[in-house]
């Protein structure tokens, strides 16, 4: 399911796991990236992809619009990867998760158990972009909360 696939941390990076995913692969991978490991050192094989053409198509689509917002480039990459064969088991879910400067995601959308999940994710994104995005500026930031309270982020003892 799409909820178990994307892992992202602000200022660190993003990892996508697939199949019967072990969530700790994504979480541990983010920890490795945060500790200074390179993406090449952390990467896992895309062994359930239809073939190398999937990654090539995704990379081409992602870099085709360098001035587009990240989430738009990611959606284009997902669509291109699917068009090139996608997951060799077929289509089931799609997810879009982007982090920015805060501990919570800038955008976190997914479509599960759908016959054509990527176009449905694109539709959901369009709704998000029109109806929810205008309200993002009113979200709390860590810096605002710390300045307002006079306290840094709470830490557990020990």
Average pLDDT rating: 89
Q: Proportion of β residues? A: 5-15%
Strand order of the largest sheet: 1-2
SS element count, helices: 6
Biggest sheet overview: 2 strands, antiparallel
Rounded to the nearest angstrom, the distance between the terminal CA atoms is 36 Å
Q: How much helicity do the residues have?
A: 40-55%
Count of beta strands: 4
Features:
158 residues, 6 helices, two-stranded antiparallel sheet, 42% helix, alpha+beta, two-stranded antiparallel ribbon, 13% strand, globular
Give your account of this protein's structure:
The chain has six helices and four strands; from the N terminus they run ββααααββαα. The longest helix has 16 residues, at 117-132. By secondary structure, the protein is an alpha+beta fold. The strands form two sheets. The protein has a two-stranded antiparallel ribbon with strand order 1-2. The protein has a two-stranded antiparallel ribbon with strand order 3-4. A hairpin with a 5-residue loop joins strand 3 and strand 4 (105-111). Helix 3 (52-64) runs antiparallel to helix 4 and helix 4 (70-83) runs antiparallel to helix 5. The mean pLDDT is 89. 42% of the residues lie in helices and 13% in strands.
């Amino acid at each position: 399911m799409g909820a178990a696939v994307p892992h992202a941390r602000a200022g660190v990076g993003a990892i996508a796991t697939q199949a019967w995913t072990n969530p700790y692969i994504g979480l541990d991978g983010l920890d490795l990236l945060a500790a200074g490991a390179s993406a090449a050192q952390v990467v896992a094989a895309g062994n359930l992809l239809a073939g190398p053409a999937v990654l090539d198509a995704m990379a081409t689509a992602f870099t085709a619009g360098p001035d587009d917002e990240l989430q738009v480039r990611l959606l284009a990459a997902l669509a291109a990867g699917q068009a090139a064969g996608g997951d060799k088991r077929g289509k089931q879910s799609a997810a879009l998760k982007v982090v920015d400067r805060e501990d919570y995601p800038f955008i976190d959308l997914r479509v599960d158990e759908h016959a054509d999940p990527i176009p449905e994710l694109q539709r959901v994104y369009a709704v998000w972009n029109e109806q929810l995005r205008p309200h993002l500026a009113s979200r709390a930031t860590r810096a605002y909360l710390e300045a307002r309270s006079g306290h840094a982020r709470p830490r557990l003892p020990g």
